[in-house]
Amino acid sequence: SSQICRIRIKGMTCTSCSTTVETCLQSLAGIQIAQVALTTEEAEVRYDPKILTYNQILQSIEDTGFEAILIS
Ligand code: 9UX
């Protein structure tokens, strides 16, 4: 199954920051698509809710050193 969520990510200032977050998300089991946009400070993530929860997604973003807030 699959679910899409959008996440606001605070504190990214260069493309290396957004690539770090994007690569981190893409490496997680259960993530199907992850795109991080620096300019809008947003991530769009498609994931399998049977494998991980959005709280785990938010936590793994925070683990990279950026603040993550669920938008939708
Ligand atoms: Mo860019 Mo981000 O030099 O923490 S990698 S600012």
UniProtKB/TrEMBL annotation:
Subcellular location per the Swiss-Prot or TrEMBL entry: Membrane
Domain HMA stretches: 3-69
Similarity comment text for this entry: Belongs to the cation transport ATPase (P-type) (TC 3.A.3) family. Type IB subfamily.
Protein name: P-type Cu(+) transporter
Location of this fragment in the whole protein: 100 to 171 of 962
